[in-house]
Write a structure and sequence with these properties.
Elements lengths: L2 H4 L8 E5 L3 H7 L4 H21 L4 E8 L7 H24 L3 E5 L7 H13 L7 E8 L1 H17 L10 H5 L12 E4 L18 E4 L9 H12 L9 H4 L1
Parallel strand pairs: 1-2, 1-5, 2-4, 3-4, 5-6
Helix pairs in contact: 2-3, 3-4, 3-8, 4-5
């Protein structure tokens, strides 16, 4: 029986975040250049997005390119950017068919002009879609996001728009990139690594963490379903006792 058939559709996480790790190692194992792994990682993205749509998930956020990734070899970065441009362009038609709304978070101004133009076009084209919200974390750093939120709030205090007493968790969250979406209930990381890698640090305070040894190019919708099955077996207490939540 497929994992999909065992999932309780009434207990789905609203928001799943994924750290897509292992493209380079996957390519190296096959004696190929790292970009070969990135190309095959796109196939995994397509399949996982399809799986998310089949379950009618509401939010899926993918760690696509971190701010630290700019430090990789220049040729690899250029190849990734070119791949991103081509992939976004090709996927727009598929997004429209599946009612997917594309979104992006991060320091997007650092992206090459061609990439940013293609990204903004896809976001605008899919903006009226009402299904899955697919967010790409691009040139993203959670620490930088948090620092920027603190700066934004400090400016508002300095200008008299708000008082220090007004600062609380809700106000802080409203200054994050993710202010218009719920926090992820489930965070998945592939490739066997057990790190968060500067990803959604504020937002995953109460997320369930799921680690798999599969490298990202081998990850498919069935693996997504397996992760959701594992999530549904867990008890989410948020600091309370089992008796209180049951």
């Amino acid at each position: 029986m497929s994992y999909k058939d065992q999932i309780d559709l009434l207990k789905l996480p609203r928001h799943i975040a994924i750290i897509m790790d292992g493209n380079g190692r996957w390519a190296k194992e096959k004696g190929k250049l790292r970009i070969f792994g990135h190309h095959n990682g796109v196939l995994s993205v397509r399949d996982v997005v399809e799986g998310a749509c089949e379950l009618d998930l509401k939010y899926l956020t993918l760690y696509t390119f971190s701010s630290e990734n700019w430090n990789r070899p220049k040729l690899e970065v250029m190849a990734i950017m070119e791949l991103m441009v081509n992939t976004i362009h090709k996927e727009i038609e598929n997004f429209m068919k599946k009612n997917v709304r594309l979104n992006a978070i991060g320091d997007l101004d650092m992206l090459p002009e061609k990439c940013l133009r293609e990204l903004n076009n896809a976001i605008e084209t899919t903006s009226a879609n009402t299904g899955l919200v697919l967010t790409l974390a691009l040139s993203y750093s959670s620490r930088r996001e948090i620092v920027q939120a603190a700066k934004n709030i400090a400016i508002k205090v300095q200008s008299g728009q708000i008082n220090i007493e007004d600062i609380n968790e809700e106000l802080f969250e409203s200054n994050l990139y993710t202010s218009d979406m719920p926090d992820p209930e489930l965070l998945i990381r592939t490739s066997g690594e057990h790190r968060i890698s500067n990803y959604l640090l504020w937002q995953i305070a109460y997320s369930e963490l799921y680690f798999t040894t599969k490298l990202w190019p081998d990850f498919r919708k069935e693996d997504l379903y397996e992760a959701i099955m594992d999530y549904q077996k867990r008890e989410r207490r948020f600091g309370m006792t089992s008796e209180q939540v049951n």
